[in-house]
Design goal:
five-stranded mixed sheet, Nucleotidyltransferase, domain 5, elongated, 4 helices, alpha/beta
């Protein structure tokens, strides 16, 4: 004689295991956090002149600020003109990123030209000057 199980006993013992679902949610969360693009600000407030041709540029860019006190700033740290080439070279090795130079209205024009030259020597193919919309 065969042993019979009750259908009600099997239904009571069946549970849904949601631990793989929780693991998958955490893996997706980590994936989206890691792949998010972070925008690095220059770290100083620059009074930019107005320009009629000003336009919004990509978020994936290298922001360098030139202040009226002849400081060259990247990521909140003063790097000087000599540090521009190394930073641009390091950041453009994997992908071609535009360099945006935020120039203070009272900045030295010769210093701005030197920053542009160092950016070109670092491998930047697209260099823009940042201005405010009128």
């Amino acid at each position: 004689m065969r042993a019979r199980r009750s259908v009600t006993d099997a239904d009571e013992a069946m549970d849904i295991n949601i631990s793989p679902l929780i693991d998958m949610v955490f893996i997706l969360l980590i994936f989206f956090i890691v792949t998010t693009v972070f925008v690095e600000e220059t770290g100083v407030e620059v009074e930019k002149p107005e320009a009629a041709s000003a336009a919004q540029l990509d978020k994936n860019s290298i922001l360098i600020a030139v202040t009226s006190k002849s400081q060259v700033v990247y990521g909140g740290k003063e790097i000087g003109v000599n540090g521009v080439r190394a930073i641009v070279r390091r950041l453009t090795t994997k992908e071609d990123m535009p360099v945006i130079i935020q120039v203070d209205e009272g900045a030295n024009a010769g210093l701005v030209v030197r920053v542009i030259d160092e950016s070109k020597l670092g491998g930047a193919k697209n260099i823009s000057l940042s201005a405010d919309l009128p």
